User: Which sequence fits this backbone?
């Protein structure tokens, strides 16, 4: 335990701050998915041109090769500068598919896909969940059968985020026996323009078409698109999840932390429910804001610990996946608190739309990437050693 | 860069305190029919190991280390429900040191004088007297008191009309009385030294120790206790409460570590981080104490089960240096920690 004031880190922070101030988009992010996709691609391209794409990626793959603490500085400055949401349509390619390809892909997969992801030219979606394989991911049933040089895919995926807009998919299919569970799965890159793919967008509770059903009818995917090996997809999935549960969450966490500071400022300058005094003068609201602010700081402390462990190559094991559960539950409680502070104005889309959209989206946080229940199982079994 | 993992030396400090207390002051000592511990010898050992003056200069008999090592000692003391007099004595030595009373500081560090942790029921600095509660006070010890204005040490005679009472936490004794506020033996103003922040951080560390031990105790029980033909820890209703206990203890710990470093470096957000640490550590100790009692089932309700001590000590430490409600107000009164 110690504080190290590194002069290089201060210089780096200044550099990031100056670049973001000069280059962040002037216009707000639009509302509809197609417009968002165009906006996100342009912003990703701008970051690429500025030399800020793929911060964690090795330099040999076009990334910036930043250290974990530099990535954290970027995340903090990015959030403080009120840049667009990191969890955008390019997020999955940059934080999920790209790192998975770097770890497990072939040279030709890497040389084709990685530059396109960095430049914002190809966006990705995830094809893991199915109607009967949610938390129980090993129950995947979508079939992949080898025929010549292709894998022929039949079946259905669901809750696929932005499948209607994205170019490629991380697709998990069963190539082995039907009851093989974790064995006999294959992770393959699926071009979303292939014949036989039908995408049906689903309207979410916030009115936005975040997710889709995807149907595969004799979709022929070249075997050269397999990542890892045939029947060895589960280990590739675990590689992918490792990125999701690690540093990729820092940027969106920092944005939530800054949003809470915005909410505290709002509560100091606006009347609370009842309208007779500032929201912050309400004892209950002040207490809830204080607890939320403390909880945000404790997750920040946890993040510092994870960054330090990564810098020193310390394997954290189950402790490394501790953040997801408290972060997502805090996310929900902060936006719920925001609505309570807005009081009657929370009824109005025109008065409170930003907070409402965050609030609605926060319901997905405790479901996606492993529900809170799955997270508690992981902590109970892998960290505490409780029996299954 | 804020580094929160322990280095080798810090690990040795934490592990050696833990090993000593696990051997000499195991939690089972508090059971109704347990053999008494030789507290005089334990106290002599604590002095020998230098635990009372970890963060004080060697010139007054301290070890010349930092708040970090004090935090590690108090975390382990919290874990084993060591008397709050140890925490009070550590802080009293800091008060004496800042008041330039080297003799008293040395006497406290050498275990010749002990201080009693004391709280005021109406901490109104303008009044002459305030109702006070002193924990594990032997009638002669000086009393350690603090509020927003500073931290002070009062002679035993300052506690008037002292009467023995029973404490919510029956592992400690309680005296109630009227404290003569105008005659502190030493008073260190908050502007002179941030001793109140030190006190809150040491309490947060002790509260984390409570929360962590309550979790360990419960997890071990959930692995062993069988119902419906299997360990109760296999049931998600039990497993998930254990997971929540683990998360609370760890987040409380990392926040306490961060606050400790912020105070050490006089960071702009030291007050906010300290209040956040005390708040979350108290919340973790309260909730883990409750869950520890609950998850031990009928046994958890009994005095012979160790679970209830954590719940009770959590109440005591929550009331010292500002309870959770006060800490939440402090957290929200500060400017943004993102500079």
Assistant:
């Amino acid at each position: 335990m110690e504080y190290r004031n590194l002069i290089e880190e201060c210089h780096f922070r200044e550099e990031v701050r100056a670049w973001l101030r000069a280059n962040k988009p002037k216009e707000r992010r639009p509302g509809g998915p197609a417009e968002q996709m165009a906006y996100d691609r342009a912003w990703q391209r701008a970051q690429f041109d500025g030399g800020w794409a793929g911060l964690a990626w090795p330099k040999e793959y076009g990334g910036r090769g930043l250290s974990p603490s530099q990535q954290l500085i970027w995340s903090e400055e990015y959030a403080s500068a009120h840049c667009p949401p990191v969890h955008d349509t390019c997020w999955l390619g940059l934080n999920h598919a790209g790192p998975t390809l770097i770890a497990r892909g072939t040279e030709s997969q890497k040389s084709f896909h990685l530059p396109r992801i960095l430049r914002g030219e190809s966006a990705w979606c995830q094809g893991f969940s199915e109607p009967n394989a949610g938390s129980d991911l090993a129950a995947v049933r979508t079939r992949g059968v080898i025929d010549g040089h292709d894998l022929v895919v039949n079946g259905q995926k669901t809750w696929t985020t932005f499948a209607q807009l994205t170019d490629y998919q991380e697709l998990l299919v069963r190539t082995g026996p039907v009851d093989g569970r974790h064995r006999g799965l294959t992770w393959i890159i699926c071009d979303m323009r292939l014949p036989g793919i039908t995408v049906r967008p689903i309207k979410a509770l916030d009115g936005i078409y975040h997710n889709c059903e995807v149907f595969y009818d004799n979709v022929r995917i070249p075997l050269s698109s397999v990542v890892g090996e045939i029947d060895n997809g589960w280990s590739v999935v675990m590689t992918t999840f490792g990125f999701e549960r690690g540093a990729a969450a820092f940027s969106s966490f920092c944005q939530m932390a800054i949003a809470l500071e915005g909410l505290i400022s709002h509560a100091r300058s606006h009347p609370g429910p009842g309208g007779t005094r500032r929201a912050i003068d309400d004892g209950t609201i002040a207490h809830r804001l204080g607890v939320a602010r403390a909880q945000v700081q404790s997750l920040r402390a946890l993040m510092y610990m994870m960054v330090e462990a990564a810098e020193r190559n310390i394997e954290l094991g189950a402790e490394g996946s501790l953040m997801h559960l408290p972060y997502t539950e805090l996310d929900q409680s902060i936006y719920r608190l925001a609505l309570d502070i807005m009081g009657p104005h929370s009824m109005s889309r025109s008065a409170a739309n930003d907070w409402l959209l965050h609030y609605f989206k926060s319901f997905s946080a405790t479901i996606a990437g492993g529900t809170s229940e799955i997270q508690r199982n992981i902590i109970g079994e892998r960290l505490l050693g409780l029996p299954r | 860069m804020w580094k929160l993992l322990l280095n080798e030396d810090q690990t040795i400090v934490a592990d050696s305190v833990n090993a000593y207390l696990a051997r000499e002051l195991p939690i089972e000592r508090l059971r109704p029919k347990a053999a008494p511990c030789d507290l005089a010898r334990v106290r002599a050992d604590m002095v020998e190991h230098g635990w009372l003056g970890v963060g004080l200069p060697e010139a007054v008999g301290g070890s010349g280390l930092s708040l970090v090592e004090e935090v590690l000692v108090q975390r382990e003391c919290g874990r084993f429900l060591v008397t709050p007099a140890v925490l009070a004595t550590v802080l009293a030595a800091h008060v004496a040191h800042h008041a330039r009373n080297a003799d008293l500081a040395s006497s406290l560090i050498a275990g010749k004088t002990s201080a009693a942790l004391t709280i005021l029921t109406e901490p109104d600095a303008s009044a002459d007297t305030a109702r006070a509660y002193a924990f594990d006070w032997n009638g002669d010890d000086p009393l350690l008191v603090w509020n927003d204005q500073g931290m002070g040490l009062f002679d035993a005679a300052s506690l008037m009309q002292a009467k023995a009472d029973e404490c919510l936490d029956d592992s400690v004794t309680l005296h109630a009385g009227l404290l003569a506020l105008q005659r502190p033996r030493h008073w260190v103003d908050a502007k002179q030294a941030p001793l109140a922040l030190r006190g809150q951080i040491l309490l947060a560390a002790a509260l984390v120790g409570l929360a962590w031990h309550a979790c360990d105790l419960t997890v071990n029980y959930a692995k062993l206790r069988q119902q419906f033909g299997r360990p109760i820890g296999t049931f998600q209703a039990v497993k998930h409460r254990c997971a929540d206990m683990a998360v609370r203890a760890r987040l409380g710990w990392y926040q306490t570590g961060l606050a400790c470093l912020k105070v050490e470096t006089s960071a702009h957000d030291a007050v906010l981080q300290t209040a956040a640490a005390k708040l979350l550590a108290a919340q973790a100790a309260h909730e883990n104490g409750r869950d520890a009692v609950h998850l031990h089932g009928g046994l958890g309700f009994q005095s012979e089960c160790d679970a209830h001590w954590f719940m009770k000590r959590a109440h005591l430490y929550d009331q010292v240096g500002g309870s959770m409600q006060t800490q939440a107000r402090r957290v929200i009164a500060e400017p943004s920690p993102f500079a």
About this structure: The two ends of chain A are 35 Å apart (CA to CA). Chain A touches chain B through 53 residues (CB under 8 Å).
